[in-house]
Design brief:
The chain is mainly α. It contains 5 helices and no strands. Helix 2 packs across helix 3. The chain is rod-shaped, with a radius of gyration of 22 Å.
Amino acid sequence: MELPDYDTLFINYQAEILGDIRVDELSLKDKAMLVPVIKHKWVARLMTHKDQMRRLANAKKAAVKAHTADTPVALSRHALEQAALNNPNIAKLEESIEKLKIIIEYLEKVEKLVSSLTFDCKNIIDLQKLETT
């Protein structure tokens, strides 16, 4: 399984969301109409990463099982699993899972932020109406 560079991905997401939530008076109507599309984009990314997390967890589980099945030493299941975590491939999977958890948490917050964008646009429109009357 090819793993992306999660640090670069996180930085790219941070830069991209700034463009998606930026609202100015001239493009307010366009932005308000694009909110469902923007929300879909971020929810789709969130779900993609959640599926990726599931796959990584399954790959880790299979790697731990394969690593512990070949040992001739009679240790407890927990001790065997802890020893398996020292395997470089399993450690790499664990690191990817931890980084992916951070990205998923970030995307969950982005989804909430984009959801509130509709209310923000409405509030700006109401403010503009008050200023012009």
